[in-house]
Specification:
This protein is mainly α. It has eleven helices and two strands, in the order H-H-H-E-H-H-H-H-E-H-H-H-H. Helix 8 packs antiparallel against helix 11.
Amino acid sequence: MPAEPASPAPTADHLHPDAAARRRRITAEVLIVFGLSLGQSSVYAVVNLAEKLTRGPLAAQTTTLNPVLNDRQYFDLTYQLLDILFALVPVALVLFLLGGHGVSAFRRLGFTFEKPLRTVGSGVGLAVVIGVGTLGVYAGGRALGITTALVPAALDSYWWTVPVLVLSAVRHAVLEEVIVVGYLFIRLRELGWSTPAVIVTSALVRGSYHLYQGFGPFIGNVLMGLLFAWFYTRTRRVMPLVIAHALIDTAGFVGFALLGPAIGIGG
């Protein structure tokens, strides 16, 4: 009587169907979160870059951040605040998804002010390093013709201009660091990704949604992303990254709005 063929070795999914279902759910969750936030921004950035490349040299084009949204002062203010508010909804979604059952999403992400002196000090230190590097990458990109001219702020001069620019900087910092670093690290590690793979993925995602500014900002933000993601893997603290990012953007936005007209640019 012939021997029965050996059954294939059971896979992890066969042994743990609940684990396989959880991986599928986490994968879907990550795709939805990024589809509603920075992943969507990445797709638009790629299309925007392609459109710019068909127009002519990147060096001859300008990218404006924080533009006027309405030519009437208080409607412009309303649109600016609504834009900031709704941009943070994906952050609220992430906090909701990571919390519950007695678990604090803020603590999981390190999005707290525990050890405030160390937290703020780390944020300031990172801001100095990245700020100096950003200027160098931008100058190099302009010299090579692979970066558009950036106008960090083009708002009209109202009493609320500076506060709105600060809020915009904080918005970018919270949205990017919470989602593309903290949330992505937690979820990809749950999917079994290695730490180096998560660091590289986080950095590439960060660079991708800056492509609308040109290839120079893509490279600069990938480098920033590598440093920030590495820092997070060492500390499990997203708050220093938020502080660093907010300081960098505030310096760029507010500094340009206040000093640009004085030195003959912007305004």
